[in-house]
Amino acid sequence: MSLQSSANEPAIELVGIDKKFGAVHANKNINLSVGKGSIHGIIGENGAGKSTLMSILYGFYHADEGEIRIQGKPVTIRDSQAAIAAGIGMVHQHFMLVENFTVLENVMLGAEGGQLLAKGVAGARKELKRLEKDYGLEVDPDAVIEELPVGNQQRVEILKALYRGAEILILDEPTGVLTPAEADHLFRILQVLRDQGKTIILITHKLREIMAITDTVSVMRRGEMVATRKTAETTVAELAELMVGRRVLLRVEKGDANPGPVLLSVKNLTVKDGRGVTMVDDVSFDVRAGEIVGIAGVAGNGQSELLEALAGIRKPVSGEILIDGKPVESADPALLRQLALAHIPEDRHHMGLVLKFEEYENSILGYHHDPRYGRGAMLDLDAVRKSAEEQIEKYDIRPPNPRLKTANFSGGNQQKIVVAREIERDPKMLLIGQPTRGVDIGAIEFIHRRIIEMRDAGKAVLLVSVELDEIRSLSDRILVMFAGKVVGEKSADADEQTLGLMMAGIAA
Amino acid sequence: MEYFDTFVSILGSAIRLSIPLLFTALAGLFSERAGIFDIGLEGKMLASAFAAACVAYWTGNAWAGLGAGILVAIIFSLLHGFASITNRGNQIVSGVALNFIAAGLTIVLGTAWFNQGGRTGQVPPEGRFSGIVLPGVEMMRDVPIIGPLYANVISGNNILTYIAFLMVPLSWWVLYRTRFGLRLRAVGENPGAVDTAGISVVWLRYRALIVTGFLAGFAGTYLSIAQSAAFINNMSAGKGYIALAALIFAKWKPVPVMFACLLFGFLDAFANFMQGKSLPMIGEVPVQIFQALPYILTCVLLAGVIGVARPPKAGGVPYTKER
Question: Which of A119, A439, B221, B288 could form a disulfide bond with B69, CB atoms 3.0-4.6 angstroms apart?
Fold first, then answer.
């Protein structure tokens, strides 16, 4: 069976693609057909098999079975070279750019046009000019990548693909690192590309983007392509249900906040990063008991450093942090934990967990000195495992095995391990960074509910997230950070456009 | 005039001492810019010095010696590649292992073949690279300042010395003006970008290592059959590490590499000159201070005092495809 997704003739067809990694069946008999000159979305939770499928298309993996047809002809894609030759271009989630090269060098890499660079340079410049004119992809060919804003870096990735003659463009989670305005710009570019006859496949977990830009959409779940719809004929609710396999609450249900006294207070805080660049610039705010304060902003505008300073990981240059009205004298995470401040770090892989540890070992990370787990200098392993089992049960961590290596849990379950560890300590204040990054929809719902419960239990919650939807649905008050400063405060019902402009530093 | 003569003689000696550093540092440049750390430069130099001395001794042909030196250094490079590229092993461990193999193997084979406690036989004059007198030396000799410099520093070196200096612009040209160079620099920064551009990361890195072996072979050959006339136990004596320091000091760029090697060579020559001499006011200075200077300068650089040394971003990390 082949699901025809557009009235046009198909640019690319997948017939019966099947791929196993040992016991894991990553792609099960995938059939897909994408019409020429259309934008097709592929949506699914983490681990649904989207990435595997795209890696097969781009020659990173080989399908065990099945056929790929481009413009009606069967092709074998052995490696990226073959994918490029077949007219497939890929824009990766993490850009495949050499950061200290110029735009021109990056575009030419792999398509230099001869042994000597001098030969190809003039032609490459001319071709870049043409692409700029045809598709509105403006970028200075002599700019060095690391000095370009992220949105422009992504444009270079698109240029690379077009320069190699791509007719089919695959974008993997392209808006994760963009401001709302940059994302809009990207969408306009994609529309121009489509109108010029290019075929675009957009992989994302953001339902809103699917609705905004695609012509057709396919949903993947547990390695299977479960449905293909015309975007105009489906709804966000239907797609979400198809993704998860059951009904999902997209909007978090919560009552009004009942703010109490100020628990956490920040006064004129300035923080520099490792390079000596000021990342948090004279920031002041309060968080009260029983409220969630959300910090919105595009990644890299100082939220991470703010969170690290509050958690005692990074020493502020100046300013004060007060807990319960008392200034915190030294940057010391252990001391802060004693003062009942818990921290769910932004990046669970770098800070929240030791991936090589077994689950129960991670479940006490940072709380080793708790007398409950200790017998003098020794750990009471029975007590540790028992508490780990309790957390697994209460937070529905799967598989329910405290002896499993943490790396073998899915992203959502890893995050639940961190959340369980920090919340079960019953803190008074909770710092949360990117609570649902790389977490599937089912687990997002669960984690969001926990955060609301913390608020309702009278805790002070500070939430940092680059997902504006998340900030808006959880927060009672929203602070927007741009270039290290808090540029404004809005109530939870502020509209997205206003916040988006503030995040881009345009309006206050 | 006496001071000037001393200066000229130190300068000449500095050139001679910097040549093995220059070859080795350029060798390291190619592998490190491709993302493969090479602590095994020392071992490559030692092994190729031994091979060059053996073959030159047996055949009486210096060029055959050079060929053997290059061949052995390339074999060592490929072993490093097999461990760290193909099998994704730790590059430092692999490099150190090769250093040990070189140190041990040269002694064992040397003792077995020549029975002189690890020394090889004395290489006959035709099996060595000896000094070349450039044209015009006699004519220039009486010109003040330039004359002695030309006769004693520029002229009178062996062919390998001139090749070493030619390798500097050549390396620059290869790295910055050819397709191979562009790809090599790219693979040291972001191998993912190279892979997704449809270029084989593995083959590219192997080719970089072959260039490394080629250049390291010159360095070893220079030690045993240009600078001396036989292989002696551990004759590289840490030069591979100094070359690595020069490479870092030069921030992984070919022309600065040359200046760094000349500076380190000069410090070495100066240390030799100062041996047993006392400075006015200070008295006798231990030569170890001069010998330690290259390392001290490198540490100062790494501490960020003379600008930041930013190594190739993907250096030391074996490449695995995403997911």
Answer: B221
The answer to whether residue A209 sits within a structural domain is yes
SS3 per residue for A192-224:
HHHHCCCEEEEEECCHHHHHHHCCEEEEEECCE
DSSP A36-65: TT-EEEEEE-TTSSHHHHHHHHTTSS--SE
A96·B193 Cβ contact <8 A = yes
pLDDT in tens, A208-240: 889 999 999 999 988 899 999 999 999 888 888
The pLDDT tens digits for B129-168 are: 988 888 888 887 778 888 888 888 888 899 999 999 999 9
CB spacing of A116 vs B177 below 8 angstroms:
yes
**A136-190 residue pLDDT tens:** 888 999 999 988 888 899 999 999 999 999 999 999 989 877 877 888 899 999 9
**Does the beta-carbon distance from B193 to A79 stay under 8 Å?**
no
CB contact (8 A) between residue A115 and residue B177: no
- In the predicted model, what is the mean pLDDT of chain A? 89
CA distance A160 to chain B (A): 9
Is A23 part of any domain? yes
Q: Look at residue A7 and tell me whether its pLDDT is greater than 60.
A: no
A387 plus A503 within the same structural domain: no
Rounded to two decimals, the pTM is: 0.80
* Residue A14 structural domain: 1-87+167-248
Q: Given an 8 Å threshold on Cβ–Cβ distance, is B198 in contact with A110?
A: yes
Closest approach of A162 to chain B, Cα-based (Å): 12
A260 and A336 together in one domain:
yes
Q: How far is A79 from chain B (nearest CA, A)?
A: 7
Nearest CA in chain B to A95: B193
Cβ A48 vs Cβ A220: under 8 Å: yes
Nearest neighbour of B190 by CB, restricted to A51, A60, A97: A97
Domain boundaries, chain B: 2-302
Question: Scanning every residue of chain A, which has its alpha carbon at the shortest distance from the alpha carbon of B321?
Answer: A60
CATH number at residue A505: 3.40.50.300
- ipTM of this model? 0.87
Three-state SS at A94: coil
Residues 6+ apart with CB under 8 A from B313: A99, B188, B189, B190
Pair A463, A451: CB distance under 8 Å: yes
Residues A364 and A219 in one domain: no
pLDDT tens-digit map of B106-139: 999 999 999 888 888 899 999 999 888 888 888 8
The token pair that represents A92 in the structure block: 């990766």
Chain A residues with CB-CB distance to B198 below 8 A? 79-84, 110
- If one counts the domains in chain A, the total is 4
Per-residue DSSP letter, A463: E
Mutation target to probe the B interface, by most B beta carbons within 10 A, among A88, A109, A158 is A109
